[in-house]
Amino acid sequence: MSEKKQFSISELAREFDVTTRSIRFYEDEGLLHPSRQGQTRIFSSKDRARLKLILRGKRMGFSLAETRELFDLWDETLTGSEKQLLKTLEVVEHRRAQLAQQKNDIAMMEMELDAHENRCRDALEDIRQRKQPQQRTA
Questions:
Q1: 5 three-class SS
Q2: pTM to 2 decimal places
Q3: Which of 27, 104, 119, 125 has its CA 20 to 30 A from that of 55?
Q4: Entry's PANTHER family (predicted)?
Q5: For the chain, where are the E strands, in sequence order?
Q6: Are the beta carbons of 64 and 31 closer than 8 angstroms?
Q7: For 84-136, what is each residue's pLDDT tens digit?
Q8: How far apart, in Å, are the Cα atoms of 103 and each of 20, 58, 115, 121?
Q9: How many Å apart are CA 3 and CA 137, to the nearest integer?
Q10: 6/40 Cα distance (integer angstroms)
Protein backbone atom coordinates (compact mmCIF):
# COMPACT_ATOMS: atom_id res chain seq x y z
CA MET A 1 0.00 0.00 0.00
CA SER A 2 1.47 3.38 -0.99
CA GLU A 3 1.70 6.29 1.39
CA LYS A 4 -0.68 9.18 0.70
CA LYS A 5 1.04 12.09 -1.07
CA GLN A 6 -1.59 14.85 -0.82
CA PHE A 7 -3.74 16.07 2.04
CA SER A 8 -6.56 18.54 2.49
CA ILE A 9 -6.46 21.07 5.30
CA SER A 10 -9.32 19.29 7.08
CA GLU A 11 -7.50 15.94 6.90
CA LEU A 12 -4.40 17.45 8.52
CA ALA A 13 -6.50 19.26 11.12
CA ARG A 14 -8.19 15.99 12.10
CA GLU A 15 -4.96 13.99 12.09
CA PHE A 16 -3.07 16.43 14.31
CA ASP A 17 -6.05 17.66 16.35
CA VAL A 18 -5.56 21.32 15.44
CA THR A 19 -7.87 23.85 13.86
CA THR A 20 -7.81 24.66 10.18
CA ARG A 21 -7.17 28.25 11.27
CA SER A 22 -3.94 27.14 12.96
CA ILE A 23 -2.79 25.45 9.78
CA ARG A 24 -3.63 28.57 7.74
CA PHE A 25 -1.66 30.62 10.30
CA TYR A 26 1.41 28.41 9.80
CA GLU A 27 0.96 28.88 6.06
CA ASP A 28 0.70 32.67 6.50
CA GLU A 29 3.92 32.52 8.55
CA GLY A 30 5.66 30.80 5.65
CA LEU A 31 6.17 27.49 7.44
CA LEU A 32 3.85 25.50 5.16
CA HIS A 33 3.61 25.81 1.38
CA PRO A 34 0.49 24.11 0.03
CA SER A 35 -0.37 24.19 -3.64
CA ARG A 36 -3.81 25.32 -4.73
CA GLN A 37 -6.55 23.83 -6.82
CA GLY A 38 -8.96 26.72 -7.13
CA GLN A 39 -9.71 27.76 -3.54
CA THR A 40 -8.63 24.40 -2.11
CA ARG A 41 -5.28 24.03 -0.40
CA ILE A 42 -3.43 20.83 -1.26
CA PHE A 43 -0.73 19.92 1.24
CA SER A 44 2.16 17.65 0.28
CA SER A 45 3.72 14.92 2.40
CA LYS A 46 6.54 17.44 3.06
CA ASP A 47 3.96 19.93 4.42
CA ARG A 48 2.52 17.16 6.60
CA ALA A 49 5.98 16.37 7.98
CA ARG A 50 6.62 20.08 8.59
CA LEU A 51 3.30 20.45 10.44
CA LYS A 52 4.22 17.48 12.63
CA LEU A 53 7.58 19.14 13.43
CA ILE A 54 5.93 22.54 14.07
CA LEU A 55 3.57 20.98 16.60
CA ARG A 56 6.33 18.92 18.22
CA GLY A 57 8.50 22.05 18.46
CA LYS A 58 5.61 23.95 20.00
CA ARG A 59 5.20 21.27 22.68
CA MET A 60 8.94 21.47 23.35
CA GLY A 61 8.83 25.24 23.71
CA PHE A 62 10.30 26.28 20.36
CA SER A 63 9.08 29.63 19.08
CA LEU A 64 7.83 29.88 15.50
CA ALA A 65 10.93 31.93 14.68
CA GLU A 66 13.17 29.13 15.98
CA THR A 67 11.17 26.56 14.04
CA ARG A 68 11.43 28.68 10.89
CA GLU A 69 15.19 29.02 11.40
CA LEU A 70 15.54 25.26 11.77
CA PHE A 71 13.45 24.69 8.63
CA ASP A 72 15.54 27.20 6.70
CA LEU A 73 18.75 25.59 7.89
CA TRP A 74 17.41 22.13 7.17
CA ASP A 75 16.42 23.14 3.64
CA GLU A 76 19.88 24.64 3.13
CA THR A 77 21.64 21.55 4.46
CA LEU A 78 20.25 19.57 1.58
CA THR A 79 23.04 21.20 -0.44
CA GLY A 80 25.52 19.58 1.95
CA SER A 81 27.06 22.86 3.10
CA GLU A 82 29.31 22.36 6.11
CA LYS A 83 28.54 25.90 7.31
CA GLN A 84 24.79 25.25 7.45
CA LEU A 85 25.28 21.92 9.18
CA LEU A 86 27.45 23.56 11.83
CA LYS A 87 24.84 26.30 12.32
CA THR A 88 22.11 23.69 12.68
CA LEU A 89 24.15 21.89 15.34
CA GLU A 90 24.70 25.21 17.12
CA VAL A 91 20.96 25.94 17.19
CA VAL A 92 20.20 22.43 18.45
CA GLU A 93 22.88 22.70 21.16
CA HIS A 94 21.52 26.08 22.29
CA ARG A 95 17.98 24.71 22.47
CA ARG A 96 19.18 21.65 24.38
CA ALA A 97 20.85 23.95 26.94
CA GLN A 98 17.62 25.94 27.28
CA LEU A 99 15.65 22.74 27.86
CA ALA A 100 18.16 21.56 30.47
CA GLN A 101 17.78 24.88 32.30
CA GLN A 102 14.00 24.56 32.16
CA LYS A 103 14.25 21.04 33.62
CA ASN A 104 16.38 22.40 36.48
CA ASP A 105 13.95 25.27 37.04
CA ILE A 106 11.01 22.86 37.13
CA ALA A 107 12.81 20.57 39.59
CA MET A 108 13.56 23.54 41.87
CA MET A 109 9.97 24.75 41.65
CA GLU A 110 8.71 21.27 42.55
CA MET A 111 10.98 21.22 45.61
CA GLU A 112 9.72 24.65 46.67
CA LEU A 113 6.11 23.54 46.19
CA ASP A 114 6.75 20.37 48.21
CA ALA A 115 8.24 22.42 51.06
CA HIS A 116 5.35 24.89 50.97
CA GLU A 117 2.81 22.06 50.89
CA ASN A 118 4.47 20.42 53.91
CA ARG A 119 4.44 23.71 55.86
CA CYS A 120 0.73 24.14 55.06
CA ARG A 121 -0.07 20.58 56.12
CA ASP A 122 1.89 21.03 59.38
CA ALA A 123 0.11 24.32 60.11
CA LEU A 124 -3.26 22.74 59.38
CA GLU A 125 -2.46 19.85 61.71
CA ASP A 126 -1.44 22.31 64.46
CA ILE A 127 -4.74 24.16 64.08
CA ARG A 128 -6.72 20.93 64.24
CA GLN A 129 -4.83 19.75 67.33
CA ARG A 130 -5.49 23.05 69.13
CA LYS A 131 -9.21 22.82 68.32
CA GLN A 132 -9.61 19.29 69.72
CA PRO A 133 -9.18 20.19 73.42
CA GLN A 134 -11.56 23.15 73.02
CA GLN A 135 -14.22 20.93 71.45
CA ARG A 136 -14.04 18.42 74.33
CA THR A 137 -14.52 21.10 77.02
CA ALA A 138 -17.43 22.74 75.25
A1: coil
A2: 0.60
A3: 104
A4: HTH-TYPE TRANSCRIPTIONAL REGULATOR YFMP, REDOX-CYCLING DRUG-SENSING TRANSCRIPTIONAL ACTIVATOR SOXR
A5: 6-7, 35-37, 40-44
A6: yes
A7: 777 778 888 988 998 899 999 999 999 999 999 999 999 999 999 998 877 66
A8: 32, 16, 18, 27
A9: 79
A10: 12
Residue closest to 8 by CA, chosen among 54, 36, 33, 41: 41
**What whole-number distance in Å separates Cα of residue 115 and Cα of residue 88?**
41
Which residues are bridge partners to 43 per DSSP?
7
Residues, the chain: 138
| Edge-to-edge strand list for the sheet holding 40-44 | 6-7, 40-44, 35-37
**CA gap 131, 133 in Å, rounded:** 6
CA distance linking residue 57 with residue 94, whole number of Å: 14
Residues in a beta bridge with 7:
43
Q: What is the rounded CA–CA span in Å between residue 9 and residue 41?
A: 7
- DSSP SS3 for 80: coil
